[in-house]
Amino acid sequence: MSASDAAGAGHAREVDPYLLGRGGQYGLGHAAVTGRGAGGPASKTVVVAYGFWLFLLSDIILFSCLFAAHAVLQTATAGGPGGAELFKPVNIAIETACLLLSSFTCGMSAVACGLRSQMWTQLSLLVTGLLGVAFLVLEANDFAELVREGAGPQRSAFLSSFFAVVGCHGLHVTAGLLWLGTMMAQIFVKGFRADILRRMLCFNLFWHVLDIIWVALFTIVYLIGAGR
Amino acid sequence: MSDHLDTGDVAAGFPEPQGYTVWEDIQGYLLGLVLAILLTAASFYVVYTHLIWAPAVPIALAALAVAQIGVHLAFFLHLTTAPDNTNNVLALAFGVLIVALIIGGSVWIMSHLDERMMPTMNHMMQMQR
Predict the structure, then answer these.
(1) Which residues contact B16 (CB under 8 A, 6 or more apart)?
(2) Smallest Cβ distance to A89: which of B5, B44, B72?
(3) What is the pLDDT of residues B15-59, one digit of tens each?
């Protein structure tokens, strides 16, 4: 039931999407309520997305602990190589581009989901996944090269915290890719059911937040680290 | 909980409740993408050129990162100032407070401890110079 249905059912008044206590427009008797939340229970979509948003914020706090450790240990190289010698700006720029574009295509999959278009949803999710895989391959390559050069996590406190924070983000992307695969399968098999759409919404939130964490990561770890 | 009781509410990550066409939705994401690319490019530019006085670079990077995170929140996560989004924004504000306490507090305390440490051989050699 959309707002225009309600307006068609004898309510000529323009529907204000931000009107407080707008439950009244459906004849539920809440037209006079004065505050948000007084119009009745929120829809399941709102509750699910809010709960998942809280989880994501706790995930961000987990990352902030790793960032704090890295910020403290950034100069603790124990005579080993520092960020300026180790980081290759071109690789980091390509990885950043991959994640940023995948965030955009993930948004496109949300738009396609709103259109209930199976083809465009699958296509944009596929592109999102391929960009995610490209990001992970590049990052794994970087890690392997660091270890070959003798700059593995056991070399110094700086490198331990570097592998912890970047590796943790990489694990999140890996988990996100598994989730993306299951979302493609679920949309293909079960179609655009309400519960599948809620899962899709949560996946979108997860993927965009991974990109936000990467913004903090390439700023704190790579760019500020390159100047140390 | 029915999905029909409160249809005007907007969940986190949802675009506006009504009145937007598909093209306008895509335009929003495109605008976010362009702004994010510009801010990312600016970050890399600031580090690998001498546009900004070197000691000020970390502050410039922090400002650019905060701006980009804001772009992501507004255009990709659709966090707005609308009443529907109050819960999401309040949760985010609390998260930001905790993150600021953890990172700011750690850096503050550890740098003070670092200054009061017994000088190591490295430091002593530097002082003798």
Answers:
(1) A17, B10, B78, B80
(2) B44
(3) 555 557 888 889 999 999 999 999 999 999 998 888 888 889 999
Q: What is the dihedral of CA A9, A14, A16, A17, to 10 degrees?
A: 50
Reported as a single tens digit per residue, the pLDDT across A73-130 is: 988 888 888 888 888 889 999 999 999 999 999 999 999 999 999 999 999 999 999 9
Residues 6+ apart with CB under 8 A from B36: A100, A103, B68, B71, B72, B75
CB contact set of A10 (below 8 Å; sequence gap of 6+): none
**Do A81 and A151 form a contact (C-beta atoms < 8 A)?**
yes
CA distance A212 to A44: 26
On average, the pLDDT of chain B sits at 82
Closest of B84, B74, B48 to residue A212, by C-alpha: B74
The length of chain B in residues reads: 129
Write down the ipTM of this complex. Answer: 0.80
State phi, psi for A40 to the nearest 5 degrees: 125, 175
**Nearest-neighbour CA in chain B from A149: distance (Å):** 24
Alpha helices in chain A (DSSP H): 3-8, 44-73, 83-86, 89-115, 118-148, 157-190, 194-217, 224-226
Is A96 in contact with B40 (Cβ distance < 8 A)? Answer: yes
Taking all residues of chain A, what is their mean pLDDT, rounded to a whole number?
85
- How many other C-beta atoms are found inside a 10 Å radius of the C-beta of residue B70? 14
User: Residue B7 is nearest to which of A2, A36, A65, comparing CB atoms?
Assistant: A2
A67 vs B contacts (CB less than 8 Å) = 103
**Residue at token pair 């936000």:** A212
Q: Which residue of B has its CA nearest to A211?
A: B72
